[in-house]
Amino acid sequence: MAGGLIAGPYSGPPELTLGRAVTSWTLDLPVLVAVLAAAGLYLAGMRQRRRAGQPWPAGPALAFLAVGLGTVVIATMSFLGVYQDVLFWIRAVQNVLLLLVAPLFLALGRPLSLLIAARPAAGARAQAMVRSRAARVLTFPAITAMVLVIVPFLLYFTSWYEAGLRSDPVRELTYAALMAPGLVFFWTLLRVDPVPRAYPSLVSLWVTGAEVVGDAVLGLAVIADQHLIAGSYYQALARPWGPTLRADQVIGGGALSGRTSRRPPRWTPNWTPARRWPARKARRRQGWHRPRRRTASHGGKATTASPAASAAPAKVIDGRPGSLASRQGQGSVTKERSLEPAGVPGGRPPGLALPSSGA
Q: Percentage helix, strand, coil, to 5, in the chain?
């Protein structure tokens, strides 16, 4: 959508609904040409490997062609491309896809390894560039992570963002500026292709953590910003539907930080372990847990508690309800006392004598 659409009354796309999210598509010619060129070169390399009797694996091909390039198409030509100049949160989702998701799967496609295997001469030149000192400096983990974090900050907190809304060439350059740092970051992080230098896994862990923190800080900064980003553009657009400008920016900040709420969802079921554990612990303290199967020696023979015995009511052991475990230092045989009235030995009422055997 060019800048001429924002003059006067609203003349943009209609209100976004679920149906329009599925059926709304647009054509971005520069992106389409780039996607077709990348897919054609990748397929040509696969065909060359198949002719040499060494087929290229299907996994990297699907990651590159279907998921990687498919994400680029969805981010720029689906409803995200149609509504990117109208809703702030739509453009935020688009930027996340181009910055993180598409580069991740493009790197998993191992395009450099395919080039080296399919075109040895071009692959040798590419390997020489990868091993150069300049490549080692530019792909240092701290530099790649810093660039990946700084580029979105520059996009949202300078005039760059509004310029991309008003100018199609700036928008296309923004796509490339978002994808390039992501490609370098995941190329050196995943190391599925030859890299200038393989750093220890601990370094990769720290770099990944720094990138995650940077994304969270970016989203929170967008949410906390009291001034509308590209406010003059969105106010002149006069969109008559959807969220308010402030709410739109807050939703977009949540998409950038990867979260929309700090509260747990209300539909969390009651049977989750975190909610069951306190009640289970209380029952165990009261002696209502199931007695364990234990063995005790009687006359030198080991006996095992039967399931019927396990299901019997709990007995009192030394004044404590609970399992039939013996107290420490009381021998191998469990000493038990049945529930009987106080002061009545054997549980018989006073004055009741047992009949003698001779009666």
A: 60, 5, 35
Range of the domain at 68: 16-257
> Does residue 299 sit within a domain?
no
In a domain, 99, yes or no: yes
**Contact 305/324 with Cβ under 8 angstroms?**
yes
* Number of domains composing the chain: 1
Give DSSP secondary structure letters for 92-142.
Answer: HHHHHIIIIIHHHHHHHT-HHHHHHHH-HHHHHHHHHHHTSHHHHHHT-HH
- Tens-place pLDDT, residues 293-307: 554 444 445 454 444
In-domain check, residue 353: no
Tens of pLDDT, residue by residue over 116-127, are 999 989 989 999
The answer to the question of residue 358 being in a domain is no
pLDDT tens-digit readout, 8-63: 588 899 999 999 999 999 999 999 999 999 999 999 999 999 998 889 999 999 99
Q: Which of 341, 337, 308, 343 is nearest to 324 (CA)?
A: 337
Q: Hey, what amino acid is at 113?
A: S
- CA distances for 10 relative to 14, 115, 118, 240, 333, angstroms: 10, 49, 52, 7, 88
